[in-house]
Amino acid sequence: MKMTKVNLCLFSLAMAAGLSSCNRDDELVSVPPAVANETELITTMQVHFTEVGMPSNTFTYEYSDVDGFGGNPPVADTIILDINKTYNVTIDVLNESETPTDTLTGEIDDEKNDHLFCFEVHGVGLTINRTDMDGNGLEVGLASDWMTGTTAGDGHMHITLKHQPGVKDGTCAPGETDIEADFEVKLQ
After folding, report:
1. Same domain? 64 vs 2
2. Which of 79, 94, 97, 130 could cysteine-pair with 44, CB 3.0–4.6 Å?
């Protein structure tokens, strides 16, 4: 087969186009994919209480596991509440493994469509209602009302922050756990 100038030019153009497209594809492949909405490292949960009708009666209880899973055991305050009361409650979450401490509450609030605080009460008369909502009308739990029953007693509370990007449905089942905190609870 005899190569004419036209055939040689077309062959050269085809080769150049093929090589440049390979280079572009290689460049695209070498770019790492973006990580969307990673779970947060949370070492500390602070639970802030204000008694309804008594704004000067405020107090905070804390759960902390600064060295993480497998290190020293976590430290948790005992939550002590009066019977027959209602408390406005807010939660702050922190990463104390960094200096300075990284407060993640604002990030959780910004990503509230992907987060849910779950509350499990055992052994005491305590009702918890989340009072904040995400953009889809689902509860979040950074803010809640806690109503104590009429009977004194001891029990415990398990609070879990679930990370639920793309799967949040208003329940605690889907997603991953950002932090779990166990508190002893005394109603007096």
Report:
1. no
2. 94
